[in-house]
Amino acid sequence: MKKTLYELISENKRKTFFFLILFSIILFLIGYFFIYVLEWGVSGLILITIFIIIYNLIVYYNSDKIALLSVGAIPADKERFYVLHNVVEEVSIAAGVPKPKVYIMNEPQPNAFATGRNPQNASVCVTTGLLEMMNREELQGVIAHEIAHIRNYDILLMTVIGIVVGLIVLLRDIFLRSMFFYGGGRKRDREGGNAVLILIALILAIISPILVALIRAAISRQREYLADADGAYIVRNPYGLANALKKLSEYKKDMKVASDATAHLFIRSPFSGEKIFATHPPIEERIRRLLSLTF
Prior knowledge:
This protein is α+β, with helices and mostly antiparallel strands. The chain is about 65% helix and about 5% strand. The chain is built from 10 helices and 4 strands. The chain has a 4-stranded mixed beta sheet with strand order 1-2-4-3, sandwiched between helices. The two termini are about 20 Å apart.
């Protein structure tokens, strides 16, 4: 059954809070077993609970700043990047959203992403490589795709997922190193403690990042298709984005500042080659769908 744009936006908001709760539970479980192995007791549980609450608040209000900082993005000067600012403004007006903040990355790979928590607090970032490679129509198509992510409220969920993925991987690494440091809970084993729980903790620490990566990949792929179609609808032109995607696919070098935690934010994967948990659908399929659109 087809859904309206407003229904999709509401669905995105619900999913965002659902995943915040889900990831909080995953973080708590990892933290619980971490505390169990280190024998921190009730004080440890209180500490991890307070940490998760504060962490969620920080992520909600600062996720865009964290994402931009992680890739070394800086505000785009209005005079030097006049055309970029002009395109962002005209597409924002066409989409009916406030003009987002405009950032630039000094990176040869042509790419772009949007971040923030809502259209009133959003940012668009493009690489210098993108500006060098695209003509105005193609740049308009790319910006329209990113503005569509903002209008559809994809940005909060995708940014939050990126940061949570990074945190879970970090906790997993701390946990595994602590297990090694404390001898894998040998003291508890000698005392007849519950080695099964330690085994569960170990398994949980290993599979949690995989579970999150699976969820992220499924979410990201569907949102890319939707943003492609919505972006083409905003500018009433699917050819600009289709031609831009073709150029993006021809560039084969990896982006150095991107990571697995932020890869899904970009309009195309910043890494070459196919991955098991690919966050982007095949570009050929995206172009095919764009060229089949009618307005």
